[in-house]
Amino acid sequence: MTSIESILARQPRAIARAATLIENRSVASEALLQALWPHTGTAEVFGITGAPGVGKSTFVTALIRELRQENKTVAVIAVDPTSPFSGGAILGDRVRMQEHHGDPGVFIRSMATRGKLGGLAPTTLDLTLLLDAAGFNVILVETVGVGQDEIDIANMADATAVVLVPGMGDEVQAIKAGILEIADVLVINKSDLDGAPKLEAELQMMLSLAHRLDNWVPTIVRTIATEGQGIAQSLTALRSFKSHSKPKDRQRQRWIVRLEQLLREKLSNQISAEQIEEAARAVTSNESDPYAIVNGWLKQIRGTNPFEIDHLGIAVKSIDNALGFYRDALGLTVEHRETVVQEKVNVALLPAGKSKLELLEASDPESTIAKFIANKGEGLHHIALRVPDLSTSVERLKSQGARILNEPQLGAGGHKYVFVHPRSTGGVLLELIEER
Ligand SMILES: Nc1nc2c(ncn2[C@@H]2O[C@H](COP(=O)(O)OP(=O)(O)OP(=O)(O)O)[C@@H](O)[C@H]2O)c(=O)[nH]1
Ligand SMILES: [Mg+2]
After folding, report:
1. More confident residue, 19 or 89
2. Ligand nearest to the CA of residue 164, numbered in listed order
3. Does residue 230 line the site of ligand 1, with CB under 6 A?
4. DSSP β-ladder status, 379-387 and 409-410
5. Average pLDDT over residues 77-87
6. Residue 277, domain extent
7. Which ligand 1 atom lies nearest to the CA of residue 90?
8. pLDDT (tens digit per residue) in 304-361
9. How far does residue 225's CA lie from ligand 1's centre (Å)?
10. Bridge-partner residues for 345, per DSSP?
């Protein structure tokens, strides 16, 4: 079985390996996610967040049990847990852990720490795609606190519960600003402790004063996670929000955020930490301004675009005559001259920046260059474009109906090339070259 098949067959080890690739933001994870992409789109994704110790993991464990009774498969992503699931002791209730341990319908993943470039949300989203493709019906994402990462993650989820506990007092005030933005459901956990009614009253007050753009009034649910109380109601509340919100709108919003992140990530990966360090020093010491630096980076990144004009081929009657212009008058230098026997052509290469001019002269009256000149006169004969992967380009062009003139073959410089008929390219013979 390939790793893709093993993931689709929900094999825990294959999923764990893929999750590691994703967490490390390894290059391989991109191809993997691309292959899995067609299999995604069915899982329910719920976010569970709240301050440390409020009982999120206990709540999540209770939710798993509830969902297993519905015959749903469940995956959990614990983001930056202060008490990781994998430790085994965190629930203070080993029986429960064992209940889910070894259950093939449950997969639990603790995600490594913060400080990731671009935040935790992109990695979390990629993990949900993996688990979604693996066929888990419900994905629970446990995060700590209400920071930017949690807001981003909550925005990606179908619904998010913020877990609170009685006796937080002024803390409700403190988290108020962030909480409304992400809490679709407010869970008052540890309702067995004193102060649950007081907290609920405070939350009701808060909700009556604030107003959400989507007109949703967050549901308040009291729970005792350790005893499984209020769990079914919490799940119902999460699902009612999901059906209240317009899933397509939310998904589009999610992908606007994610596409921007991907772009940012790809762009910033092109610039090393050392380069940024050095640039910061140069700005601080007034040696350069930040705008010039960023523009320079953009130029550098554009330079790494895998497509590049390799050369322009110009058909001439006589290379020696043409050099009177290109070399002697214009000042270009001849890097290389040769006769390509198979094409019946003499060639002179004159570098110009990253590209070259290629002067082409017939070495035999039967040469295509001789015919070209006879038909059209001297002039631009072809444009040669370097592509990252010739066979892929050829496949794509063929499937689009472009006329390829030869199978990929080895040219004089040892590179592979094909020609594309001018009829397909807008009137110019196009040579595609793959760099060695
Ligand atoms: N009394 C009471 N204790 C609870 C309840 N739910 C969880 N606890 C306890 O609260 C403690 C913390 O629970 P966790 O589930 O680890 O909390 P958490 O929010 O996941 O904590 P972090 O992951 O460290 O942020 C544990 O000792 C739980 O047994 C509850 O409803 N009532
Ligand atoms: Mg926890």
Report:
1. 19
2. 1
3. no
4. unpaired
5. 60
6. 270-303
7. 16
8. 667 889 999 999 999 999 999 999 999 999 999 999 888 899 999 999 988 999 999 9
9. 8
10. 340, 362
Do residues 220 and 72 share a domain?
yes
Question: Hey, which of 57, 142, 143 would you mutate to test ligand 1's pocket, going by the most ligand atoms within 8 Å of its Cβ?
Answer: 57
Among residues 127, 124, 142, the alpha carbon closest in space to that of 58 is found at: 142
Q: What is the CATH number of the domain that holds 424?
A: 3.10.180.10
Q: Is residue 144 domain-shared with residue 196, that is, in the same domain?
A: yes
* Alpha-carbon dihedral 125, 129, 130, 131, rounded to 10 degrees: 100
Q: How far is the CA of 83 from the centre of ligand 2 (A)?
A: 5
CB 137 within 8 A of CB 27: no
Are residues 250 and 337 located together in one domain of the fold?
A: no
The answer to whether the beta carbons of residues 202 and 164 sit under 8 Å apart is no
Give tens-digit pLDDT for 181-217. Answer: 789 999 999 999 999 999 999 889 888 888 888 889 9
State pTM to two decimals: 0.68
Ligand 1 pocket test target in 58, 83, 91, 191 with most atoms within 8 Å of CB: 58
